[in-house]
Amino acid sequence: MILKFKDKSTFEYLIVGLGNPGKKYEFTRHNADFLFVDILSEKFAFTVKKLKFHALIGEARINGKRCLVMKPQTMMNCSGEAVKEACSFYKIPPENIIVVFDDISLDVGKLRIRRNGSAGGHNGIKSIINHLGSDNFPRIKVGVGAKPHPDYDLADWVLSEFTRTEGKQLRVAVDNACEAVALMVSGETERAMSNFNS
């Protein structure tokens, strides 16, 4: 069942999965969080197909909260453009923006939830912080594994695909991220951190 909302005026939360648009990036490490959005939409029966705010968006009801769910289509390094547009339009404060993104410092299958913080070298997060003028938004880091050796080019690594085994581990992490989001929009971020932080 696809939920439809009569009141188009506001959303309580913005949930953002970062990635790069286009088939060639579909199964790469950098796009782990587009997969998160896909699984979230299955679990809560909504679609993310409408193009608005330089993003594919969908409307979801998660634990009674009206949420705008987004896959920015700007390329990773400009993700803040889409986030800023949506937040400005719907007057969503930074603390009600949940950003899900890939993290090479975590093993595949691991999560780390934070209430706020710096970009930590992630260009998508850096763009969001720059456009919002704030780093006070919660985020879920999804582990995609470290480079195989220090000399390995970072761009090549994050744009590489997961192995079959890693794919299974990633699915577990994404399922957990969906559960974490449901807790976070219910005001239970501490519980989400306790349950899922690696």
Question: Could you please describe the fold and organization of this structure?
Answer:
The protein has 198 residues and is an alpha/beta fold. The protein has a single domain, classed as Rossmann fold (3-Layer(aba) Sandwich), CATH 3.40.50. Helix content is 34%, strand content 20%. It has six helices and seven strands. A seven-stranded mixed β-sheet has the order 2-3-4-1-5-7-6, with helices on both faces. Strand 2 and strand 3 (55-62) form a beta hairpin. Helix 2 (79-90) packs parallel to helix 3 (123-132). The radius of gyration is 16 Å and the shape is globular. The relative contact order is 0.18. Mean pLDDT is 90; it is low at 1-6.
Secondary-structure element order, N to C: EHEEEHEEHEHHH
The CATH superfamily turns out to be Peptidyl-tRNA hydrolase
Largest beta-sheet characterization: 7 strands, mixed
CATH third-level topology: Rossmann fold
CATH architecture assignment:
3-Layer(aba) Sandwich
Instruction: Write down how many β-strands occur, each being a DSSP E stretch of 2 or more residues.
Output: 7
Q: Based on Cα principal axes, name the global outline.
A: globular
Low-confidence residue ranges: 1-6
Radius of gyration: 16 Å
Write down the CATH class.
Alpha Beta
In short:
By secondary structure, the chain is of the alpha/beta class. It contains 6 helices and 7 strands, in the order βαβββαββαβααα.
Main features:
198 residues; alpha/beta; Rossmann fold; 7-stranded mixed β-sheet; 7 strands; 20% strand; disordered N terminus
